[in-house]
Design a protein that fits this description.
230 residues; Rossmann fold; six-stranded parallel sheet; 9 helices; binds magnesium ion
């Protein structure tokens, strides 16, 4: 297989532990909610979100509605928007740092230095992706990336999303290696013509699908696809 020209990578379960989102980001937003609203509640962005909360939960106190959605892990747009703002502030003032598995930053740097184009595709918003990689445990890695793609490109389990990303990168799909822990995402990328590799990280409890090449870390990916190893 020829060496890819670009690497497209998922975040949760691939570059970053699933526990970081579940055990760090979500509890951080819950613990910061009242303080954030007390200090930021009059900013235009937060006022707009609170208006959307009132519209979605009429007759309820906005904080109570938000708490209820958090407890139920509801995928409600104003809650997601508010959590994004809370995390953004936490990253900016240094209380949050984006988790990366220790094998990841060195490989990303080595691949970028070798001329490969790097891009992210995650269900987290482009803004959240930039926050995580801009304030990561390994420093600001955003300059390494040529693109940050989110579900505005389409759903992660649909081949059309991967075709759209290839078009946005200006490369044939066959030149873009996609990395993810989720087999259905790899199925979709492969259907769009991308070479793929599953990240099977024991700490995340990922199980190899058997349908795609699988590696336990980024150096393994590098050796398999002829890329520099950090
Ligand atoms: Mg994932």
């Amino acid at each position: 297989m020829p060496r890819p020209a670009a690497i497209l990578t998922d975040i949760e379960g691939t570059t970053t532990s699933i526990a970081f989102v579940k055990d760090r980001l979500f509890p951080f937003a819950a613990a910061s909610l009242e303080d954030f609203l007390a200090t930021q509640g009059e900013t235009p962005a937060v006022r707009e979100i609170l208006a959307a909360v009132r519209a979605a939960a009429p007759g309820q106190e906005p904080v109570a509605a938000l708490r209820g959605w958090m407890a139920a892990d509801a995928k409600v747009t104003p809650l997601k928007a508010l959590q994004g703002l809370i995390w953004h502030r936490g990253y900016a003032d240094g209380r949050l740092r984006g988790h990366l598995w220790p094998d990841v930053p060195g490989c990303l740097r080595a691949w970028a230095a070798a001329g490969l184009r790097l891009a992210i595709y995650s269900s987290g918003s482009e803004e959240a992706q930039r926050d995580l990689f801009g304030h990561s445990e390994a420093g600001d890695l955003t300059p390494l990336f040529a693109g940050f793609f989110d579900t505005r490109m389409g759903a992660k389990r649909e081949a059309a999303s991967y075709r759209a990303i290839a078009a946005a990168l200006g490369l044939p799909a066959a030149d873009i290696l996609f990395l993810s822990d989720v087999a259905e995402e790899l199925d979709a990328a492969a259907a769009a013509g991308m070479p793929v590799c599953q990240l099977v990280r024991a700490a995340d409890g990922t199980v190899a699908s058997g349908r795609h090449p699988a590696e336990s870390d980024f150096p393994g990916v590098a050796r398999r696809f002829g890329l520099p190893v950090a």
